[in-house]
Amino acid sequence: MATVEFDGVTKTFPDGSRAVDGLSLSARDGELVVLVGPSGCGKSTTLRMLAGLESVSAGEIRLGERVLNDVEPQRRDIAMVFQSYALFPHLSVADNIAFGMRARRVAKPERERRVEQVAATLGLTPLLKRKPRALSGGQRQRVAMARAMVRDAALLLMDEPLSNLDAKLRVQMRMEVSRLQRSLGVTTLYVTHDQVEAMTLADRIAIMRDGVLQQFATPEELFERPANLFVASFIGSPAMNLFEVELAAGGDGGGGARGVVARVGGEEIALPAAQAAAVADRVGGRVALGVRPEDLGDPAARPGAPRISGVVSGTEVLGSEVLVHVDADARPVATADVEAAREAEDGTPAPLAGSGSTLIARLSTRAGIG
Ligand code: ATP
C-alpha cells in the first residue's frame, strides 16, 4: 500500500532558517494530495525531503510501513516530475522516457513495450524519435510525465509541473494530469502555488504558510469551512471579503431562537443559523466576518443575502461575470442589476444586488481586514 505519512517533520537549514515546522499529514493509497501556499512556505522542501533530495532535521517520513528518512533517493521507489522537466537534450523522446529503465537494467523488449504504451497514453507516439528541442512546452511536459510514469513507482511527486506553460495549455494539461493520475491510481503529491490548480486537481489539499501546515482537507471543506483567516483569504478567486464586525444579539435565529447579527458600518447582517450558533458566546465582542464575493447576490432572489454599504471604486467585465470593486463604508447599499453594475460609475453607490450569480462584488474597505 502506497500510503505516505509525515510525522512531525521539520527542516532546519544550516543557516538556521526553518523551512518546514512540525509537519504532520498523510496521503492515502491512490490519493492526489496537493501542497499549496505562497512562495517560500516550504512546499518544495517538503517534496524534496520525501524524494530524498533534502535531509530531514526532525520527525519521520514513512511510505507504507517503511521509514524513509535514511533511505537513499534511488531506493525510495519514488518518481518525480520537475518544473524544468529536466530532459536530456541529446537523447530522443523514446530514450528520455526509457532512461530510468535502462539504468535499472530492464530488458530491451520490456523497455520498448513500456515506452510504446506510455507514449500512446500521452499522445507522444509520433514524437518518439524527436529531440526535446523540437518539442513544444506542453510536449516536453508530457515527456517528463511519461518518464516518471514508466517507472511504475509507488509514489509520484510533481513540483509545479505546469508552471512553464501558457494559460490555455495549463488548463488542458491539468485535466490530463488528473485523468492520468486517476487511471494509474498512483499515490501522488503535487506542489503548486496556484490555488485554482490545487482546487481542481486535489483529493485533499494541504495549505502551508511559513513552514506550518494551516489546514489539510478536501477542496470543498477548505472553501466552506476555512480553519483560519489565512486559508479563508487564500482559497477563492476573487478573494473572500473580510470585515471586522461587532456581534450583537438580534434577528431570528431559526426555530424561535434569538439570532446573532454582525454590525459593520451602519449595517446589520443577520448570521445564518449555523454561524450564529458557532459564535453565540462571542456576542458583544469583535470578530472577523467573511463573505464570498459571489454570495453578495440579488436580495430578491436570495432573501437574507448579506448587504454591505459602499461606493463603486471600479468594475471589471470578465465575460459573463462582472467584478465590482466597492469601497465599503457606512452608506446604505443601493440595489441594481448586472446591467447597472456594468455601467456603474466609479464613486456611485454600489449595485451589490445582481441578477443571478453573475455579479461578483469584491469589497475593499477601510473597515476590512487584509
Ligand atoms: P516557491 O513556491 O517559491 O518555490 P516553496 O513554498 O516551495 O516556495 P521552499 O523552496 O520550500 O518554498 O522554501 C522554503 C523556505 O526555505 C524559504 O524561505 C527558502 O528561502 C528557504 N530555503 C530553501 N532552501 C534553502 C537552503 N538550501 N538554505 C537555506 N534556506 C533555504
Describe it:
- The chain is an alpha/beta fold and 370 residues long.
- The chain has helices at 43-51, 93-103, 108-121, 137-149, 167-184, 195-201, 219-224, 229-234, 273-278, 338-343, and strands spanning 4-12, 18-27, 32-36, 58-63, 66-67, 78-81, 155-159, 187-192, 204-209, 212-217, 241-254, 257-264, 267-270, 286-291, 311-318, 321-328, 359-365.
- A hairpin with a 2-residue loop joins strand 4 and strand 5.
- The two termini are 43 Å apart.
- It has 2 domains: 30-44 and 68-234, Rossmann fold; 241-365, no CATH class.
- A 6-stranded mixed sheet has the order 6-7-8-3-9-10, with helices on both faces. The protein has a 4-stranded antiparallel sheet with strand order 2-1-4-5, covered by helices on one side. Strands 13-12-11-14 form a 4-stranded antiparallel sheet.
- The model is unreliable at 330-338, 351-360 and 363-370 (pLDDT under 50).
- It is elongated.
- The protein binds adenosine-5'-triphosphate (ATP).
- Adenosine-5'-triphosphate is lined by residues 13, 15, 17, 19, 37, 39-45, 193.
- Residues 4-235 form the ABC transporter domain.
- Pfam families: ABC_tran, OB_MalK.
- This is ABC transporter ATP-binding protein.
Could you report the average pLDDT, rounded to the nearest whole number? Answer: 82
Main beta sheet: strand number and arrangement? 6 strands, mixed
Give the strand line-up of the largest sheet: 6-7-8-3-9-10
Derived from helix and strand composition plus strand pairing, the structural class reads alpha/beta
- Estimate the strand proportion: 25-35%
- Percentage of residues assigned to helices: 25-40%
Gross geometry = elongated
**Regions with little confidence, pLDDT below 50 for 5+ residues:** 330-338, 351-360, 363-370
List cofactors, ions and other ligands. adenosine-5'-triphosphate
Distance between the termini: 43 Å
Number of helices: 10
What is the helix/strand order? EEEHEEEHHHEHEHEEHHEEEHEEEHE
Going by CATH, the homologous superfamily of the largest domain would be P-loop containing nucleotide triphosphate hydrolases
The CATH architecture of the largest domain would be 3-Layer(aba) Sandwich
Supply Rg.
25 Å
Into how many domains do the coordinates divide? 2
**Got a strand count?**
17
The CATH topology of the largest domain comes to Rossmann fold
Instruction: Name the CATH class of the largest domain.
Output: Alpha Beta
Pfam families: ABC_tran, OB_MalK
InterPro entries: AAA+_ATPase, ABC_transporter-like_ATP-bd, ABC_transporter-like_CS, ABC_transpr_MalK-like, ABC_transpr_MalK/UgpC-like, Mo/tungstate-bd_C_term_dom, NA-bd_OB-fold, OB_MalK-like
Protein name: ABC transporter ATP-binding protein
Keywords: ATP-binding, Nucleotide-binding, Transport
